[in-house]
Each structure stands twice: as structure tokens, then as C-alpha cells.
Specification:
Shape of chain C: globular
Strand order of the largest sheet of chain C: 1-2
Structural class of chain A: mainly alpha
Number of helices of chain A: 7
Number of helices of chain C: 15
Structural class of chain C: mainly alpha
Number of strands of chain C: 2
Helix content of chain A: 40-55%
Shape of chain A: elongated
Order of helices and strands of chain A: HHHHHHH
Strand content of chain A: under 5%
Radius of gyration of chain C: 24 Å
Number of domains of chain C: 1
Chains: A mainly alpha, B alpha+beta, C mainly alpha
Largest interface: A-B, 47 and 75 residues
Number of strands of chain A: 0
Oligomer: heterotrimer
Order of helices and strands of chain C: EHHHHHHHHHHHHHEHH
Largest sheet of chain C: 2 strands, antiparallel
Helix content of chain C: 55-70%
Chain lengths: 152, 254, 409
């Protein structure tokens, strides 16, 4: 009997090695699979939180209303009424969080106005566009237009 | 790593479940994590966006705002969102001339002038947050995924940087962030929308060409938009379930 | 997209301008292809009883092992976070073909290749363990798992298990390389890659490259050992190479004809790319020099009676051209698939650096490494003689003329 076993002993040892390997793998797996994996789908549930935890740079127009309601009132009925404050004034989450520490700035008018209103054939025809060289006789935009209520 | 017995049993149980396909269908209703989004319930939302081509003026506000809000590398040619300009001479939709200088970040210098018979317009592009996204299908480890609220997100702490998802996206909206060597893409400003704000691009769009919509909210204006506009998605033949609905999309748009 | 991007022609989506998969990803299917092909050649003898190729059996297995050991390296070099790659074993995403990699690789390496080599060599390992000393003896003893028994019965059992292993080895080899083809073929976003034919095309070009490699190595080693080449063996290998080539060529032609006939939305863009950016690598290297010329040379051998030297030269030439051609094929698939825009309106250029993590230098080193490993393997486990290692008793007990046991082998 031992003669027969000795003929397959090497195979038995090899099989034992394989099984040991599988067991080690299963143990590693139990230890290393990240927490929360598989709760919502094939991903780490914590990733949803990681994506939510990014800092804000833009405050959103409702945040501006808290202190600057007067400006918003002034804009009612104007052509620019629907535009968010930060579309022109840039990211202001820091300012909204601490108005004195992070001051907002008045953007430079001409390049800003041009970025939307300079004539470009790809812009919808009905959108108000001008040729800066011809429009207004070389005067600065602010000479005639108030950005919060630009209608002349 | 401290493992007590209860934890070990829980982990063993968890991985055993993971090994079966049923793990993917296992849904929990979770109230969100109190620290970051106290009132946000994932299963209450299904995010999409309404994009109106006839309103886009190619100002580039969205591109600039996104780069600032999401800390996108300013080295050119990594974009979470960008704007393309189409010039369709003679209305020949099979041969458009398209350009996107620095993704539209600095606007579009006039190039065409009033050429008779040519159609010109802008098309904003971003991740389509597909309901059946081909990109998450190919991730080998689950580092990018379709969230339960319809936003396709990346787990940057898990991503291997194999770039398979970048290859699999039909819209070219993914890139590898050279600073982290992981994939990055539009997250629909997940950190904003879970707090009741809108995305940075929608916030700064001056004409309302881009408007975030919650398809699960019956009061959301996106439903009205979808009912009253002829809308399309990009590359419909790929059946990706894109949730970026374009109104006024021309046949020449790629 | 203009003056700031001189290497871009036309329009590309901004994030497409830079290639994602480099020469290292060209190398990976090339290497696993050689593994699969070498293994198929070995299995010709074991399973299909093509006895004529027996002299290359062990060499083919060792070649497969040497290349398989190197196969994960280009991938690790390419990954943004290679230290996280173990995640493929922890949380494999079952929808992703790439997630299979870890398990298929490990399965093929451990359960097929290493086992098969071990079983075929076991007798020699034990004899070498007995006859060597020092570190070498330790190595051989470990390889023999501490078992000293090489009785005829144990060897007969080995033979049967090995045959069974080769039978499962063949679909395993198909899987090892076929899934790579599926990785490309299943990407619907990329029309250059997306075709159901891709895994099969990859597989047959793998078989072609693997057979060519073993054929060349056999000739090379025979020269180095100053031993006569077994022409019957070489001619048989040459014949199988021709058969595999014909099937491979038929499949690739089918793909091409299909594309040209259907002429879908991607066709014009891809056609332009092949005529310009891929002209040298596809038309010249892959098709003409890498497929048509080797097929012609191999067919010539079948049709015209030629002397030994002439045939050897033809085989060597065909073999080298084949390897170049199959490498070019991998290049054309991987790099070609990224040179055109998914908008079908533009093209970019692949800038291959030399000294860079994903540059030409590491690629060259990675291609040389398997040969270095093979050299060590050949020294450690000589493939020559096909099992005729120094004669010895079945067990040490017999050597002492002690306990009764099976007759001496």
C-alpha cells in the first residue's frame, strides 16, 4: 500500500501546495478588501463620500442674496437678471464664507463684456452682439452700460 | 489592522457575498453621510442635464469655472468639460469643420466671418453620465462606477491608472490627471449637487444653455424641457443611456 | 486645436490628443501571444501526437515559461499605480475583461505551465538533485518537493496527468491570449478595435508568432550546441506554421474586406489613417513583409524540392519576418486604435520617447529579459535529449540493492 502512495506522493504534495496557496489568498482577500465595498454596487461606498467632500469654489447665487439683496433687486427686469453673480465676478465661495478675509473684485469691463458680446458668427443670430471697433465709437462699455442693468 | 472577531465574521460574510453576482444587486437605503451631505438621500435623485445648443454663445465661462471648481490641471488638453465650434459649409453635415482652441477656455477668436450658406454653432461637451456607461463596464477593479443617483464617479484612491475606461468612453470625456496618475472626469460637481447647489458650469452659464436637472424630481424644469424641445443624445447608436439631453443638435455634431 | 498642437491633424476631442496606451501595451499581447503559440506547438506533440516535433517539446515549454514570467512587467510599468494592482485579485469587476487578467494568468502559470513542466522534467530533476551539490542541489530538491521517487509507475502517472493538463492547457492558452483580443474587441467606442473577430485574429497571430519563435530558437540552439538540426522536426514545424498563417491571413483579410464593403461611418477616417500614419507599419511591415513574404517562402518549401541548407535559410528568414510582422500587427491594433479621433475628424501622432518609463528603452529591455530567463532555464533544466537525463535508479533504496521495488528504469 505504501508503495502505491509513494508513487503519487509528489502529486499529493503539489496539491497541498496549491490548496495552501488558495487558503492564503482567501485570507488575504478577507483582510484587504476595502470597507464598504459592494454596498451600493461594485465599488467602495466611501467613494461617494470622497466625491462629496471636495471644497466649494463657487458659492452659488443664493449665497450672494444673503448680503447683496439690493443688487439683486436692481437687476430685476434687466437683460442680465438670469445670470449668476459669479458668472462675471468669479468664484466667491471664500468670500461668502468670510467676506472680509476674501474680498470680491470688480472684473475689468471691456474683456469681460467682449467675451460674451463680441460678434461671432457661431453665436445665435438673435443674441446681442457687437463689433467692438464700430460699436460706441471707441468709448468704454461702462460709459453707456451698467452691467447689472445693461439696457440703455 | 485591528480585526476583532465580530469584524472578522462580518468581513468573511461580506467577501463571501461579494463572490456571487447577487452582490451587485444588493441595495441599501442609506441616508448619506451626516458630515458632508446631511439631507441628501442617494436614491431620491437621478441626475441629468439639459443643453440647449441654440443658446450657447461659446463664452467659455463653463470651461473656466469647471477648471477652478474642480482643480482641473491647467496644462492644456485636460478637460472635464469643453466647448466645440462647428462650421458647416453649405450645410453639408457630413463635412463639418470643428475646432476647440484650448477647449474653449479662452473663448473662440472669430475665424469665419459671415460666410454665406455656412451654419455655425457651439456645442458644449462633458461627461454624459450614461445610465449604461461603457466606461464603468470595463474598469477591472471597480474604481469608477455608476452611482445610485445617476452620476458616474471615480474612486481616486482605488484607481490603478490602467486607462481602460478612457479608451472605452465614446465621448472622449476622460483623461489621466498627471498629478495623481489616476483617471479624472466630470463628476457633475457631485460635491455641489449633493448640497442643493448646481454645477459650476451651469452656475456660470450666462444664457441658460446648460441646466442641471433631477429626473426623479417631478417639479424639475427638465421634464418640461424634454417635453417641449426636440432632444437628442450624442452617439445614440451606442445605446449608452446618456443623460445629457441636447436640444438643437445638428446632424454634423460628432 | 491648432498651432499649439502641431502633431494633431484636424479635430480631436481635447482629451484624445494624448495616447493612453503606449508601446508597453503593444508588448503585452505580443508576449502573451508568444506564450500561447509556443504552448500550442508543444501541445501538438502531447495531445495530437505529432511525434515529429518532439525535439522541440521541452524547449517550447521553457520558452513559454520564460515569456510568461515577463508578461506582467510591461503592464506594471504602465499602470499609474502598480502598487494597487493587487486589487484585481481582491475586487475583480466581473464585467471587465481586464479583470480576468490576474486569475487567468495565475491559473495558466501555476496550474498549466509550471505543472506541466514539472511533470515532464520530474525524473530529470530528481536525478539532477542526486548528482549535484551545493546551492544547485538545494534548488533541485526544492523543485522535486523533496520527493525522490521516480519509479516507472510514478512516471506513468505523471505522464497521464501531464496529458490531461495539456488538454485543459489548450483552452487555457486560448483564454490567456483570447481575452486580450476581447479587451480590444469589446470596446464599442473604438471602431478600429470593435469586432467579434478580434480574439480569434489575436489567437491565430499568436500561434503564428509562437511557432515561429520556437522554430528560430530551435535552430539557434542547435547551431550553438553544434548539433545537427532534425530536419523532419523543422519541416513539420514549418508546415504547421504555414497552416496557421493561412488561417491568420484569411481572418485578417476577412476583417479588411468587411470593413471596406460595409464602409460605415468610421471607414473614411480609418482608411486615411492606414494610408498615411500606418502605411509603413501596416502595409509594409505587417502585410507584405510580415505575412505575404513568409507565406510565400513557406509555401515555396512545400512546392519545390530544396536542399537542407536552403530550407533552413528560408525558415529562418520566414521566422524573423513573421515575428516582425506580428509585432507590427500588435502595434497597428494598439497604437493605430488611438491615432484617430472618435469624432472621425482628426488624427494625432504617437511620440515614443527613448528613456522614459513607457519609452523604447524599457520596451527593448523587456523583450530581452525573457531570453535571459530562458538561458537560465535551459541551463537549469536542459531540454535536450527529451528525457534522457543521466541514467539512475528509480529510488536510492534500489541503488543500494535494498528493498524490493519496480525494476530499474
Amino acid at each position: 500500500m505504501s508503495g502505491r502512495f509513494s508513487d503519487v506522493q509528489h502529486l499529493v504534495r503539489m496539491a497541498a501546495l496549491f490548496i495552501a496557496g488558495v487558503v492564503v489568498f482567501l485570507i488575504l482577500r478577507a483582510l484587504l478588501v476595502p470597507e464598504g465595498f459592494g454596498v451600493w454596487g461594485h465599488f467602495r461606498a466611501g467613494a461617494l463620500d470622497d466625491n462629496r467632500a471636495r471644497p466649494l469654489r463657487f458659492a452659488g447665487r443664493e449665497a450672494c442674496a444673503e448680503c447683496h439683496a439690493d443688487v439683486l433687486d436692481a437687476r430685476v427686469g434687466s437683460k442680465h437678471a438670469a445670470i449668476g453673480c459669479e458668472a462675471c465676478h468669479g468664484p466667491l465661495a471664500a468670500h461668502a464664507a468670510d467676506p472680509d478675509a476674501a474680498r470680491a473684485s470688480r472684473p475689468e469691463a471691456a474683456p469681460l463684456c467682449r467675451s460674451c458680446h463680441e460678434r461671432n458668427v457661431a453665436r445665435p443670430a438673435a443674441f446681442p452682439q457687437i463689433d467692438p471697433a464700430e460699436h460706441g465709437g471707441g468709448e468704454p462699455c461702462l460709459a453707456c452700460h451698467q452691467p447689472h442693468h445693461p439696457d440703455v | 489592522m485591528k480585526i476583532d472577531r465580530r469584524d472578522f465574521v462580518k468581513r468573511t460574510g461580506t467577501y463571501l457575498v461579494l463572490t456571487s453576482a447577487a452582490a451587485a444587486a444588493w441595495d441599501h437605503v442609506v441616508a448619506g453621510t451626516p458630515e458632508t451631505a446631511p439631507n441628501y438621500r442617494v436614491t431620491d435623485h437621478w441626475w441629468g442635464m439639459a443643453i440647449d445648443i441654440d443658446r450657447c454663445i461659446g463664452c467659455g465661462n463653463c470651461v473656466r469655472a469647471c477648471k477652478v471648481e474642480n482643480d482641473v490641471p491647467h496644462e492644456p488638453y485636460y478637460f472635464r468639460t469643453w466647448v466645440e465650434r462647428y462650421h458647416v459649409p453649405g450645410g453639408d453635415i457630413e463635412h463639418p469643420v470643428v475646432d476647440s482652441p484650448n477647449g474653449g477656455h479662452d473663448g473662440f477668436p472669430e475665424r469665419y466671418g459671415a460666410v454665406d450658406g455656412a451654419k455655425n454653432f457651439f456645442v458644449p461637451k462633458l461627461c454624459n453620465h450614461c445610465a449604461h456607461s461603457p466606461c464603468t463596464q470595463v474598469c477591472p477593479v471597480g474604481a469608477t462606477f455608476d452611482g445610485p443617483d445617476g452620476v458616474v464617479l471615480v474612486d481616486t484612491s482605488y484607481c490603478l491608472g490602467c486607462r481602460y475606461c478612457v479608451q472605452a468612453c465614446p465621448y472622449g470625456c476622460r483623461y489621466i490627471d498627471p498629478r495623481t496618475n489616476t483617471v479624472d472626469k466630470c463628476s457633475l460637481c457631485y460635491h455641489r449637487i449633493t448640497r442643493g447647489l448646481t454645477t459650476a458650469c451651469c452656475e456660470t452659464c450666462p444664457t441658460g444653455a446648460r441646466r442641471l436637472g433631477d429626473l426623479k424630481d417631478p417639479n424639475d424644469p427638465i421634464h418640461e424641457f424634454l417635453r417641449t424641445h426636440k432632444v437628442q443624445v450624442l452617439k445614440p447608436q451606442m445605446a449608452t443611456g446618456s443623460k445629457m439631453y441636447y436640444s438643437g443638435l445638428d446632424g454634423s455634431v460628432r | 486645436m491648432d498651432a499649439t498642437l502641431p502633431h494633431v491633424l484636424g479635430f480631436m476631442y481635447p482629451n484624445e490628443v494624448e495616447l493612453q496606451w503606449s508601446i508597453l501595451i503593444v508588448l503585452y499581447p505580443f508576449i502573451t501571444g508568444l506564450v500561447a503559440g509556443a504552448f500550442i506547438l508543444a501541445s501538438l506533440e502531447k495531445v495530437f501526437n505529432v511525434e515529429a516535433v518532439r525535439p522541440t517539446y521541452r524547449l517550447a515549454l521553457l520558452t513559454a515559461l520564460a515569456f510568461l514570467l515577463v508578461a506582467p512587467l510591461p503592464l506594471q510599468l504602465h499602470l499609474g499605480h502598480p502598487e494597487r494592482s493587487f486589487a484585481m485579485y481582491l475586487t475583480p469587476h466581473l464585467d471587465s475583461a481586464m479583470a480576468m487578467f490576474g486569475f487567468v494568468y495565475l491559473w495558466y502559470l501555476m496550474a498549466v505551465l509550471i505543472l506541466e513542466i514539472w511533470l515532464d522534467y520530474r525524473r530529470d530533476i530528481v536525478l539532477l538533485a542526486r548528482s549535484s551539490s551545493g546551492w544547485l542541489r538545494v534548488i533541485y530538491r526544492v523543485m522535486s518537493l523533496g520527493i525522490d521517487n521516480i519509479s516507472p509507475r510514478s512516471l506513468e502517472i505523471d505522464e497521464r496527468v501531464a496529458r490531461f493538463l495539456t488538454v485543459i492547457g489548450i483552452p487555457s492558452a486560448f483564454l490567456l491570449h483570447g481575452y486580450v483580443g476581447f479587451i480590444f474587441g469589446s470596446v464599442k467606442a473604438n471602431p478600429w478595435w470593435s469586432t467579434p473577430l478580434m480574439p480569434i485574429v489575436f489567437l491565430f497571430s499568436a500561434i503564428v508568432s509562437g511557432i515561429a519563435l520556437v522554430m528560430l530558437l530551435y535552430m539557434l540552439f542547435s547551431r550553438m550546441r553544434r548539433v545537427a538540426i532534425d530536419m523532419r522536426c523543422l519541416d513539420t514545424i514549418g508546415r504547421y506554421l504555414l497552416y496557421a498563417f493561412i488561417i491568420d491571413f484569411a481572418l485578417e483579410s476577412l476583417d479588411l474586406i468587411h470593413r471596406m464593403y460595409e464602409a460605415d461611418e468610421s471607414f473614411k477616417s480609418l482608411d486615411f489613417m492606414v494610408r498615411t500614419k500606418l502605411f509603413t507599419s501596416q502595409i509594409v511591415l505587417q502585410i507584405i513583409l510580415g505575412t505575404l513574404v513568409p507565406i510565400a517562402l513557406l509555401a515555396l518549401v512545400q512546392l519545390v524540392r530544396l536542399g537542407e541548407r536552403a530550407r533552413q535559410r528560408l525558415y529562418a528568414t520566414a521566422g524573423v519576418l513573421t515575428l516582425i510582422g506580428i509585432f507590427a500587427m500588435r502595434w497597428n491594433v494598439v497604437i493605430g486604435g488611438q491615432l484617430f479621433s472618435k469624432s472621425f475628424l482628426g488624427y494625432t501622432t504617437y511620440k515614443l520617447a527613448f528613456v522614459h518609463r513607457e519609452g523604447l528603452l524599457p520596451a527593448i529591455l523587456l523583450m530581452l529579459l525573457p531570453f535571459a530567463i530562458l538561458w537560465v532555464l535551459v541551463r537549469l533544466l536542459p531540454p535536450w535529449g527529451g528525457g534522457h537525463a543521466p541514467e539512475g535508479p528509480a529510488t536510492p533504496l534500489q541503488a543500494e540493492g535494498g528493498a524490493a521495488g519496480p525494476a530499474q528504469a
